[in-house]
Design brief:
Blueprint lengths: L6 H9 L1 H14 L6 H22 L10 E4 L3 E6 L4 E6 L2 E9 L3 E9 L7 E2 L1 E8 L2 E9 L6 E2 L3 H24 L1
Antiparallel strand pairs: 1-2, 2-3, 3-4, 5-7, 6-9, 7-8
Length: 179
């Protein structure tokens, strides 16, 4: 089972709020410098997943895993070991744990374009639907932002080709291991 979110971390962070609040109420009576505790806590709460994800991406994967392909998506990164037949996944909201999935456990993996216009120039999002041991997961590769829909002639097309190549490589490894 893949875990895209580490709920324990966020529960602990929320449980720390009363302690931070108590420190603020006591500390600000001593010195106004304690007020900086509030923005530091808020900054860590909001920014720590991105910082830890960025740091974890730079650490090596386990020694038996030899990444031959990499695919970066909006909220995670995937690596494929074509020789060993494994897929590794790291998600922004679960940056403590790289998850390894044996490719034969993957039931299906497909790329979907959601909200594609009739002229096929714009899409709402590009996503990968992955089914592992009967459980479905949806990962966004590219989605509509505040500047409008995904342009398929430019960046959207590049992301679509990258994700399709990665998905094709995973399915090729799965087919090879089936024989």
């Amino acid at each position: 089972m893949m875990r895209k979110i580490n709920y324990t971390y966020y529960i602990v962070m929320l449980a720390l709020w009363p302690a931070v609040d108590r420190l603020l109420s006591i500390g600000t009576r001593i010195s106004p410098l304690f007020f900086w505790l509030l923005p530091l806590y808020a900054g860590w709460f909001i920014g720590s997943p991105f910082l830890l994800y960025w740091l974890r991406q730079r650490l090596p994967l386990r020694t038996s895993f030899h990444a031959s392909r990499e695919c970066k998506m909006e909220w995670g990164t995937f690596w494929l070991d074509e020789e060993g037949g494994e897929l590794a996944a790291l998600f922004i909201l679960n940056p403590f744990h790289v998850q390894y999935i044996a490719v034969p456990r993957i039931d299906s993996m497909e790329v979907r374009l959601d909200g594609l216009t009739a002229d096929r120039k714009y899409a709402r999002q590009i996503s990968v639907h992955l089914v592992v041991d009967g459980k479905a997961y949806k990962m966004q590769a590219c989605s509509m932002g505040r500047f409008g829909p995904v342009v398929m002639d430019g960046y959207g097309g590049m992301v679509l080709r990258q994700v399709q190549q990665f998905t094709g490589a995973v399915l090729k490894v799965k087919q090879r291991m089936r024989v």
